[in-house]
Design brief:
108 residues; alpha/beta; 5-stranded mixed beta sheet; 5 strands
C-alpha cells in the first residue's frame, strides 16, 4: 500500500509542476463579409510593414507603441517580412484591437 501512495504523490507533484496557471488571452479574427453590397471605402489607409526588428508605417520607421498612437481609424494593411514571428504579429494586433472604425487586413 505504501508504494502506491508514493506513486500517487509523485504523479501529483509532476502534474502540479508541469501545469501553467496563467490565462491566455484571445484575439478575435473575422473573415471578410459575404454579400452583394459593395464595401465602403475607408477614410484613411495605412500600410504597415512588420519584421522581426522593424515596424514601418507608410515609409516611416516606428515602434509598436508609436504605431498604435498614429493609427486611430481607417484601414490598416499589414505586410509581413519573411522573418516575422507569429508573436510579433499578435503584438501588433493586440495594440490595434478594440478601436471603432479601424479594420486590419494581413496580406499574404
Amino acid at each position: 500500500m505504501t508504494p502506491l501512495i508514493d506513486v500517487i504523490f509523485l504523479l501529483l507533484l509532476f502534474f502540479m509542476l508541469s501545469s501553467t496557471f496563467s490565462r491566455f488571452s484571445e484575439i478575435e479574427l473575422s473573415s471578410a463579409p459575404t454579400g452583394g453590397t459593395a464595401p465602403v471605402a475607408p477614410s484613411e489607409r495605412f500600410f504597415v510593414q512588420i519584421g522581426a526588428t522593424r515596424v514601418v508605417l507608410n515609409g516611416r520607421s516606428l515602434t509598436l507603441d508609436d504605431l498604435a498612437d498614429q493609427v486611430q481609424s481607417g484601414q490598416v494593411l499589414v505586410s509581413l517580412d519573411p522573418d516575422t514571428s507569429a508573436q510579433r504579429l499578435v503584438d501588433l494586433l493586440v495594440r490595434l484591437r478594440g478601436r471603432d472604425g479601424l479594420t486590419v487586413k494581413v496580406l499574404e
